[in-house]
Amino acid sequence: MNIYQTYEPSQIRELIRKKEITGPTAGLAEGYAQANLMIVKKELAFDFLLFCQRNPAACPLLDVLEPGDPVPRKSAPKADIRTDFPKYRIYRKGILQEEVSDISAYWEDDMVAFLIGCSFTFEHALMLNDIPVRHIENGHNVPMYQTNIACKRAGVFHGPMVVSMRPIPAHQITRSVQVTSRFPSVHGGPIHIGDPAMIGIANVDQPDFGETSVIKEGEVPVFWACGVTPQAVVMHTKPEIAITHAPGHMFITDQRDQQLGVL
Amino acid sequence: MNIYQTYEPSQIRELIRKKEITGPTAGLAEGYAQANLMIVKKELAFDFLLFCQRNPAACPLLDVLEPGDPVPRKSAPKADIRTDFPKYRIYRKGILQEEVSDISAYWEDDMVAFLIGCSFTFEHALMLNDIPVRHIENGHNVPMYQTNIACKRAGVFHGPMVVSMRPIPAHQITRSVQVTSRFPSVHGGPIHIGDPAMIGIANVDQPDFGETSVIKEGEVPVFWACGVTPQAVVMHTKPEIAITHAPGHMFITDQRDQQLGVL
Which Cys pairs does UniProt list as disulfide-bonded (chains A, B)? Predict the structure, then answer.
């Protein structure tokens, strides 16, 4: 429980814009969909849009903004994606150059912003089904791993899929597949269930992003495609400039989680 | 029942290529997904891809081919979209100029082909649920209508949604919503249920494309977004050149219908 749990999305965004909220956004404005960010120049926008279309589990699109337009007219028409994430990452030629809390100074008229669905939506649905979500129970960021699963290439964009992991009690795995499959626009059903080595994860206790989740007796690690994938792709593709959110520091949209369910 | 019902997709495509099959493809290679076609020049490809992303009910993408590549490497890697539809339409500046059975002579290195999901997939699922599909029962093309529902604009592309109509017995409407919602990549659940006038259809017995379906006592007209929408959009947007399939004359992919179900 946190004091911001029951705030409206617009209230949270205002606090973020004023830099009164600067940390991870899990649990804020509960019930509203949060989003990952990827910004590229217009000349790469077709390739990246095609990359998302070909890799819908990792990069499910909630909103694609008009070139040069920082306002997400579909998902939060009064917001501004240059100021409404708590933390951003600036990548130049695939290298993380800096983390900032406002990208107004970096924004250019030929940039295109992509908002990508976030697993926080289905975590709420898991908990409503009495399926435990360890990193929320323990109050830390979700563990994320680079895998040996290659994303489908599109134009210049290619790279490995990043996944998030949740330990699920064995008897609840089927239900966790059902619950998350309802939400394809926030990564959908799991990518992998069980042995981490099969998808190239050497040590499940050493995530590449986020923090370790303890796997208890009788639990199985279950892996979902993750919206941090574009950052791994940027590191491989090395565009002149790309701007993303910092993992866990998301954008809160005006769309309710339940509106994203396919049935 | 038709003699081609049990053929493999590759066999049907070969007969189409040899011009031994030249008519509508409904019921051919049953159980395999069929696709609508839209081809635009590379300079418009980002706008059209964004249009599809913003209008997923009307334009659910099964495959987007590389610029200049006529081979659908994801959905039918041994096919050629220039020869494997029975009939194509060539639009210049939004005007239908001609219908041809092969577009090899029109193909250019900077063209991008989009394969869009087709309702034939969910019709099979409806029938497996004992929900009647009138135009299949009566052996004619599905009735399609231009509506007053505006698609969401993307770049230069805008225009009205085209829908297909199936008369459904009132007590089976809920089930028809459930069954078709499983298949968002072939238009998903209905766009409208009931009074045709509410979506701008003046006379349900006079479709804009295809042929009339009789609505029996106790049945309600149910409308689904239709992959002919890009043709209405081309008429509004008037690009120099666009190539589509002729309504009902689809491409047969190697993907099974059931592989497109989200759950």
Answer: none
